[in-house]
Amino acid sequence: MTNRRQSRWAIALASFLTCCCGLKAQDVMLVANKNVHVSEIKTSDVRAIFTGEKTRFADGSHAVPVTLKGGPAHEVFVKHYLGESPDEFRAQWRKAVFTGQGAMPRVFDSEAALIAYVADTPGAVGYVSRVTPDDNVKLLVALK
Questions:
Q1: Which domains does the chain have, with CATH numbers?
Q2: Which residue, 2, 45, 125, 130, could crosslink 32 as a Cys pair with Cβ 3.0–4.6 Å?
Q3: Whole-angstrom Cα distance, residue 127 to residue 67?
């Protein structure tokens, strides 16, 4: 193959992988316990809740943030909503725990486990890549 042909092939493959495998911010859904009264949440409030700056939703009710251990949905959420890398996010929470300024959010290995916890825990809020009608959680709309 010529260099030109190899370059075209590499570009085509990269484009395909980006379209098929990559999650975008709109592919990450914010989910909450059905008893959470808010239906919309500002992106700045999402950041504040998941970084420990706030412990309440805009209506004053208690917020219990939960996260995924890793994976595409976690990476997209942390980058888009928190403006950090997963490593920066983890390091920030470790520092808060070590200095006694906060308790790290509960972490789940799978989206199914996170959804089950959110469905059963008043005030719980998390994120996933997909939700089914049987998941018994509420979707939150993120506002700028």
A1: 23-143 (3.40.190.10)
A2: 125
A3: 7
96 Cβ contact list (under 8 Å, min separation 6): 52, 102, 104
Classified as helix, coil or strand, 128 is: strand
- State residue 4 phi and psi, 5-degree precision: -65, -45
The structure's pTM equals 0.79
Burial (CB count within 10 angstroms: exposed 0-12, middle 13-18, buried 19+), residue 96: middle
